Amino acid sequence: MLQKWWQSKTAYQIYPKSFYDSNGDGIGDLRGIIEKLDYLKELGVEIVWISPVYCSPLADQGYDISDYYGIDPRFGTMDDMDELLQEAKKRGLHIVMDLVVNHCSDEHVWFQEACKDPDGKFGRYFYIEDWHEGDPLPCNWRSAFGGSVWSRLPGHEDKIYLHIFHRKQPDLNWENPELRQEIYRMINWWLEKGVSGFRVDAIINIKKKLPYRNYPADREDGLCSIECMLADAEGVIDFLDEMAENTFRKYDAFTAGEVFHEKEHELPLFIGEHGVFSSMFDFAETTINTNPLGWYAVQPVTAEQYKQACFFSQRRVKDVGFLCNIIENHDEPRGVSHYIPDGQCTLAAKKMLGGLNFMLRGLPFLFQGQEIGMENRRCSSIEEVDDISARDEYQVALNAGLTKEEAMDVVNRFSRDNARSPFQWDSTPNAGFSSGTPWLPVNANYTRINLEAQKKDPDSVWNFYRALIELRKDPKYRDTIVFGDLIPYLPEQKNLMSYFREGSGQRLLVIGNFQAEIQTAALPAPVEEVLLNNIGDCEMKDGAVRLQPWQFLILKLNSNS
Ligand code: ISL
Ligand code: CA
């Protein structure tokens, strides 16, 4: 496989609203990111994806864009953006923007014009249909945040428009070549400015199965999950290939697709040698146990499930391409709270989870705060919850007969606010995030879990991540870690997750004891060196290693045996 400029790096996601507030208005901003570039450099990451900072009414926290060429004043100015790009470049950091083109905001001028003249040029930028009170809707698809995908077109009694997400996020009509050209123009404008690429939001949804049709209802609301339509729709790759040809490929840009529900035969078309994207996120772990009924019906993830999901994805892409590996992002609960059983979230367990994920073949992608082991933040009532998805799921849980307390437990397990609480910089008020009132409260545990304290502590989660990042860059191991094969080791041994990374004439064994009890694992070959150990002791004798609860090791094996 041809090697690409981005493959050996470590990537990092910033959720700007919660990263660092430079002016005390409680909202993280671009100047806040500029101030923290040296921090990112020190951590060792080299690719930085910034969640949306474009002009937006923030109905979905910036994933509803009203001007693709403008920076929302809450986040700063275009001058700040230009400065950020320059300062990042000086430090060898690649900035990756969020590309949200399945939909825009209902406050985008295109939609406003479409409302004025639904039959005109801009009407054709959206999916608008005639509809009269009492008529059945064109289809029974459910929107991501609850309710039908159809809403009344403002100003028109007899027209409706389609939105797969919130009603303030009208879907853009990709069947219209004029719209597609507008999008390519915008992408190239940003690439000319010096961004290194894009994370591509919700992209599978751009291809709709037309003409509209109903699918069997999966809840009492009579609606069906959008997955039914996606399974039925063909041809997304044609749009994406045209987009890549007109934009990304010309700039050797890095692109990471947010792709769910792709068809098996499409995988090489997405991320193969001539794929439409450089890479895509692996969601096999985050989607374990998902249930069409809603969050309330989701069972906790077991260690065995986690391991199997990772190995499944690795097997699937090994000859095809490179995945972006994550334990969390801005849509997910904190990885350490989600994958480690309640009450077991120790320092060792956090490091083990991070290490097992980081060492997978692919591009490791850290989400802000992951590097200090930030945890879920509990809310006691739904009024404290900002996330529109969590608010919908709360109602779904109540409708299913759960009590308010039970429904809040569900929200606390899965709310997107969990990952969106401000970054915990230090132990001063508001965790050093803002001198004002943070838009979302900080986690009360910030006096215990914060960056400043962890920098000083050689045993901290932060120093562990730093060591992982350094190891990935180390010329002695880089080729094995980045490009080597991944081969599961003892996959049947319960609560043990272990694999070889093999290539360039050497063999590493990555091994994690995914449980609160001691266990012993046979060693396949003599150990030459312990490259990383999250606990300190490492008891090896008679060809076996005795692993402490949540112990994680990277061992260099003797490659002649
Ligand atoms: O379809 C899904 C899983 O089956 C969803 O997870 C969906 O693809 C996902 O929520 C899309 O997320 C992205 O687009 C949303 C935005 O709210 C999220 O924050 C973003 O990551 C709409 O732009
Ligand atoms: Ca601010």
Key traits:
globular; binds calcium ion; five-stranded antiparallel β-sheet; binds 6-O-alpha-D-glucopyranosyl-D-fructose; Immunoglobulin-like; 561 residues; eight-stranded parallel beta barrel; 2 domains; TIM Barrel; alpha/beta
Q: How would you briefly describe this protein structure?
A:
The chain is an alpha/beta fold and 561 residues long. The protein is built from 18 helices and 21 strands.
Description:
With 561 residues, the chain is of the alpha/beta class. It has two domains: 11-102 and 177-383 and 424-462, Glycosidases (TIM Barrel, Alpha-Beta Barrel), CATH 3.20.20.80; 486-557, Immunoglobulin-like, CATH 2.60.40. The protein has helices at 30-35, 37-43, 78-90, 109-116, 177-193, 226-232, 236-246, 248-251, 267-271, 303-317, 335-339, 347-358, 388-399, 404-414, 417-420, 451-456, 461-473, 478-483; strands at 11-14, 47-50, 54-55, 67-71, 94-99, 128-130, 150-152, 159-162, 197-200, 254-257, 279-281, 323-325, 363-367, 485-488, 496-503, 506-513, 519-522, 527-533, 539-541, 544-547, 552-557. The protein has an eight-stranded parallel β-barrel with strand order 1-2-5-9-10-11-12-13. A five-stranded antiparallel beta sheet has the order 14-15-16-21-18. Strand 10, helix 9 and strand 11 (279-281) form a beta-alpha-beta unit. Helix 12 (347-358) runs parallel beside helix 17 and helix 13 runs antiparallel to helix 14. The radius of gyration is 24 Å and the shape is globular. It starts with 10 loop residues before the first strand and ends with a strand. 49% of the residues are buried. The structure holds 6-O-alpha-D-glucopyranosyl-D-fructose and calcium ion (CA).
